[in-house]
Amino acid sequence: MMEHIHFYYCNDLHSHFEQWPQIVHYFKQKKIQHQRHNQESWLIDIGDHVDRSHPIAEAYKGKANVELLNEAGFDFATLGNNEGITLEYNDLYHLYDQADFQVTCANLRSIDGKQPAWLKKSIAFTTNENTRVKILGLTAPFNPFYNPLGWQVETPLGYLSREINKLKEDADILILLSHLGYSEDQMIAEKFPQIDIIIGGHTHHLLKNGEVVNQTLLTAAGKHGKYVGEIHIDWDRTSGEIVDKQAFAVETEHMQQDQHTLRSLQLKSEQAADQLNQPVTYLQHQLEVDWYKRTPVIQLLTDELKKWTNAEISMLNAGLLLESIEPGYVTYGDVHRICPHPINPCTVELRGIEILEVVRGAYNQRLVELELMGFGFRGKILGAFVFSGIEVQTTFDEDGVEHVQKVLLHNKELEHERVYTFATADMFTFGKMFPEIARSKTKQFYLPEFLRDLLREALQNRLSD
Q1: Which pTM does this prediction carry?
Q2: How many angstroms separate the CA atoms of 458 and 388, rounded?
Q3: How far is it, in rounded angstroms, from Cα 154 to Cα 119?
Q4: Interatomic CA distance for residues 2 and 105, integer angstroms
Q5: 419 or 396: which carries more pLDDT confidence?
Q6: In angstroms, rounded to a whole number, what is the distance separating the alpha carbons of residues 385 and 292?
Q7: Which residues pair with 463 in a beta bridge?
């Protein structure tokens, strides 16, 4: 006798609600279809549903996202890094208090030892045909960010090495909800064939027809709700084994919309706008934003960063500010719209010779024009780089290209071997944009503050009339 089991999921929505009504309609229709054939199906979110770059997520600190998942009838979820490290401790601790679905994240724990009531190591359930299914979630261990917020995340491989046999011993089907990334999923599949299916996210990879690694089926549906995923399992009750498992990613753009979800989003959007309509300051004149220029407002923010972190030098990029700030009353909603990124201030320790390399790199036009995706950046291009605490002397060659000649601190050139405290946006500690910053062994991340909190403070303190 064959049992047909179905799962539907989304991953890395990042509060891009443009396709959410389509996703909800599609999932609801699939549920109805399976019910007609006496088949069971479940809905899953793989994390990063919340993204505080969206006004709804910002105003409600993710709880409106949970309401949307409730309204859509989701059954299970795990946490992404956007739930985990962009919310203050109490906001995450109570994020899923009203969830109608179960949440699993096996490698997350509160440092003080008091776990949220909703947080489960794994979720076990039995189908109508008595097939035992177990689901566990794992999230990326960004402990330099988690620890200051009061959380600790165990390494996924460490957790699985210790627990995998126990997890599998009372489960016919073992499913991992992985907010770890594609390469990590592949590694886990190679090391732990006991896992039947890995539903992936975090690195925004798209596996339209799944991928089998070792004995494990991997699947993932990209980002921002442009695709959703579905998994279909054929379980032979007689032999007690999976005889077929398939995964697909389905494009959502041309799906029908769920009308209730449309109305709910509209209402939440209006309520969020009201909630963010808190006055910050009043401006007599426009503060111009230009991604290719070192304008007074990005200089103001860079100066504030240096002062706020007590650093000797600070650096930011003009692309962090998305729009000019118009005259009149400025609200927190305006500040959020202009600087929406979930990016934290940070400091690193760099030698003078390393700072020289950073400054030279910042004047590379290709970096200025880089269209960055990820690392918390929600803008278009990086834009011109701005410094505080140092004077950068440059010259132009015959082709009009600007070159760094000298970098002065207090009218003296940087000492090559002296160590300086250098403040910047946390995104520059990742990737290859500034290797000197990424390689620094001394990094301090300031949480839960975002750069927009510093912008708000700078506007209040220095520009209020």
Answers
A1: 0.93
A2: 14
A3: 15
A4: 31
A5: 419
A6: 9
A7: none
DSSP 432: T
Contact, 85 vs 447, CB < 8 A? yes
**Exposure of 16 in the CB half-sphere (CA atoms within 13 A):** 17
pLDDT digits (tens, 9 = 90+) for 296-307: 999 999 999 999
Structure tokens at 210: 């799944």
Task: Mention every residue, 6+ apart, whose C-beta is less than 8 A from residue 213.
Answer: 185, 186, 189, 190
DSSP state of 448: S
Cα–Cα dist 379/376, whole Å: 9
Q: Which residues pair with 367 in a beta bridge?
A: none
Q: How many angstroms separate the CA atoms of 78 and 401, rounded? A: 49
Both structure tokens of 253:
């753009």
| Confidence grade of residue 111 (pLDDT, cut at 50, 70, 90) | very high
**Under a CB-based contact definition with an 8 Å cutoff, are residues 355 and 313 in contact?**
yes
Going along the chain from its start, the domains and CATH numbers come out as: 2-272 (3.60.21.10), 279-463 (3.90.780.10)
Distance CA 101, CA 193 (A): 28
The tokens for 212 are 């089998």
Span 80-94, pLDDT tens digits: 999 999 999 999 999
3-state secondary structure labels for all residues of 242-286 = EEEEEEEEEECCCCCCCHHHHHHHHHHHHHHHHHCCCEEEEECCC
pLDDT tens-digit series, residues 245-285: 999 999 999 999 999 999 999 999 999 999 999 999 999 99
Q: Where are the beta strands (DSSP E) in 11-94?
A: 40-45, 76-77
Condensed to tens digits (0 to 9), the pLDDT of residues 354-377 reads 999 999 999 999 999 999 988 899
